[in-house]
Specification:
alpha/beta, Rossmann fold, Alpha-Beta Plaits, four-stranded antiparallel beta sheet, 11 helices, 29% strand, ABC_transporter-like_CS, ATP-binding, AAA+_ATPase, ATP hydrolysis activity
């Protein structure tokens, strides 16, 4: 494996009976970057992470993580990685400090070094005043910070985070991501799964998974720039009626009401501002149409494209 890559996987697959959970996924993750997995529940994010960690045997494919062949050298890998699950997995009947002391013992850290490292992490993650508090009584954000402290206690080269912010408030999520960037600045590689678009935008590089397949891979800005569809913003008094008028039309890939505005994702050759406005006017929905900037949600919709469902009937002219 090339020295600047922390993870390389080729043809990675996992099958449970007749269910193909991960289907021939190729991944390359460079060192000291945040690499994101974006996808809906059931897309294969957690299964892929567990295979990369050596916790789950792949059905097919080759994996190298930090230069080690996985799963053959999974035991050697354990000392060099950290893993944080979506569900809080520390002991709720132990205090904050006792949880970290237990993890230090698991990692065979010398007592003096462990004490110094724990003190540092308690300060860094704003838990010093709660060191004697039972972990089970912490708030969601505090539990998240404790779990991160536990995952990085032994200073891993590579950190796996499986939807770590799904149960915390926006401010805690922002603070958590500040901590992740601090870790990458210090040389840690991070692979994080999420279903939040704003978090996906923060990643250096991003993979979009859908039904076990890798459907997009690149830097967020690159993915937006390469979007093969145009984004149109429709301003009208009846956005739900506008949505109904465009639902099912050839070339229309995505429709989403954002406040009083309708966001339209459409094939470039099929629609432009004038044709959209004319189409809506003919159906009794006068509107102004202007070009919009592509975002990751547009990329996600395009990459995981499925047939559009009919919009519910509007109950009023300004629905």
């Amino acid at each position: 494996m090339a020295s600047d890559n922390a993870i390389e996987a080729r043809g990675l697959s996992k099958q449970f009976g007749q269910l193909v959970a991960v289907d021939k996924v190729d991944l390359t993750v460079s060192r000291a970057q945040i690499y994101g997995f974006l996808g809906p529940n059931g897309s294969g994010k957690s299964t892929t992470i567990r295979m990369l960690c050596g916790l789950l045997m792949p059905s097919a494919g080759d994996i190298q993580v930090l230069g080690l062949a996985i799963p053959q050298q999974a035991e050697q890998l354990k000392r060099r990685i950290g893993y944080m699950t979506q569900k809080f997995s520390l002991y709720e009947d132990l205090s904050v400090q006792e949880n970290l002391e237990f993890l230090a013992a698991v990692h065979d850290l010398p007592r003096a070094a462990a004490r110094q490292r724990i003190d540092h992490l308690l300060q860094r993650y704003w838990l010093a005043e709660r060191r004697k508090q039972l972990a089970g009584t912490l708030s969601g954000g505090q539990k998240q910070r404790l779990a991160l402290a536990g995952a990085v206690l032994h200073e891993p080269e590579l950190l796996f985070l499986d939807e770590p912010t799904s149960a915390v408030d926006p401010q805690s999520r922002r603070e958590f991501w500040d901590s992740l960037f601090e870790l990458t600045d210090a040389g840690t590689t991070i692979l994080v799964s999420t279903h939040y678009m704003d978090e996906a935008e923060r990643c250096h590089r991003l993979a979009i998974l859908d039904q076990g397949r890798l459907v997009a891979d690149g830097a967020p800005r690159e993915l937006c720039a390469q979007l093969p569809y145009a984004v149109w913003l429709v301003d009208c008094a009846a956005p739900r009626r506008a949505q109904q008028a465009l639902q099912g039309e050839a070339g229309v890939v995505g429709l989403a009401q954002i406040g009083a505005e309708l966001r339209v994702l459409a094939a470039r050759e099929a629609w432009h501002a004038d044709s959209l406005a004319r189409h809506l006017a003919q159906r009794g929905v006068p509107a102004e149409v202007r070009r919009g900037e592509a975002n990751l949600e547009d990329v996600f919709v395009a990459a995981t494209r499925k047939p559009l469902r009919s919009a519910p009937a509007a109950t009023g002219a300004a629905a």
